[in-house]
Each structure stands twice: as C-alpha cells, then as structure tokens.
Amino acid sequence: LACVATKNAARREVHILLEKARRAKLSKLLAQHGVSTPGAASQSRYGDVTLEAPLSTLIAADTMARALQHFARTYSDNPGVRPFIRGIVELIKQQRGCHTVVRWVLPTEAFTERVYPTFMDDAVVLMCGFFRYVSPSSEIEYEVNRPAVGSDNRQSAEGGHGWDVEHSLSDQQLAGMLSTLRSAAATSLNGDVRPSGYLIVTDLPRTNQDGGYDEPGNSICPACAIL
C-alpha cells in the first residue's frame, strides 16, 4: 500500500508540473497573439491577409470562414475538443441577431487539457486571430454586472479568458460562417455535446449588424439570404 501511495503521489506531482508548463505556454501564446488586430495572428496560416480593415471586407470574412471550417474539420473527430467547437458555434449563433457584442468566456483548462500541444497552438491562433481577446482581469471586473447567455455549463469567472465577436461583422456574414461551421462540425453538434465556457452579452455596440458597410460583391455564403 505504501508503494501504491508513493506512485500515486509521484503521478500527481508530474501532473501538476505538466499543467504549470502548459499554463506558462498558454500565457506566452496569449501575450504573443492576444493584442493583435483580429486577423493578424492568423495571417501566415490562413493566407496573406492583413486585416487593418474591418472583417466586413469580403476577403477578410471569407478568410475567417475558411479558418473556422479548417479548425472544425481538424478537431471534430476528437471527443475532447467537441465542446470547444460547439462553443464557437453557439457564440456565432447567439451573436447573429444580437444588437451588441457577445463574449465567450473560457477557463484556462479549456486550452491546457485537450490534445496538447497542437490544439492549444491552433485554438489561440484562431481565437486571437479572428476575435477580440479580453484578459482575465478585465473579464472578472466586467462580468459582475452583465447577464449570462446559455450559461448551463458556466464556469467561475476567475481566470476566465474572454473573446468578443468582431463588431464589424454583419448578420449575413455570421449566417454564412454558421452554415459553414455546421457542415464541418456535425459530430460536435449532437445533443450530448455541451459547449465549453459561457456567453455574456456586453453593451459594446455592433457597427455593421445590417451589413451596410459590407464590401460589395458576392456573399461568402450564397444561401445566406434564406437562412
């Protein structure tokens, strides 16, 4: 029994050390990508797109849709990542039709305990590349006075990392992304998969909900008009 107890203690110590290393890497990735303009962090991975302009441009919105699709296809077969993908889908779903920006808040464990290290790298690049990062300290202060959305799986706000949907995306563009995501992540959207984290509605105004500032041209989703 003493030998078993010693082995268990050693395993726990190793787990603690590994988790510390993963959290340190997450902090480094967020410091590297978290202050970027949406789109900049994903420039090298998703094409030569410099998003100084808002995501309402055709090429920027299309790049975001393709990035979401690629991420969903890459990880949707992994049961541990499905709640994360489901969370992205719920975020975009809730944002469409909402007059203010919706924020997705995730605990640190959502990044450190899944398919390490590739998932962490890809998830941070995706989220910081196309959503606006809100640090845990800002989120704790902000969350106190804001209503939650879809918070059945709600986590403590302490240590939560927030991502806001880009305010310049229109409902039409969001509809196209949602359609693309649903087709790429069908296995993540069954009734047994609960989304990671929780959503809150901010009071930050959306600047292009009706698509008035969308760049003229074909929609990223030809069927958007009927969704």
Can you describe what's shown?
The protein is α+β, with helices and mostly antiparallel strands. It has helices spanning 2-33, 43-46, 58-75, 82-95, 109-112, 118-130, 136-143, 171-184; strands at 100-106, 131-134, 148-149, 161-165, 198-205. The protein has a 5-stranded antiparallel β-sheet with strand order 2-4-1-5-3. α3 runs parallel beside α8 (171-184). The radius of gyration is 18 Å and the shape is elongated.
Key terms for this structure?
single chain, 227 residues, alpha+beta, five-stranded antiparallel β-sheet
Please describe the topology of this protein.
Blueprint: H1 2-33, H2 43-46, H3 58-75, H4 82-95, E1 100-106, H5 109-112, H6 118-130, E2 131-134, H7 136-143, E3 148-149, E4 161-165, H8 171-184, E5 198-205
Antiparallel strand pairs: 1-4, 1-5, 2-4, 3-5
Helix pairs in contact: 1-6, 3-6, 3-8, 4-8
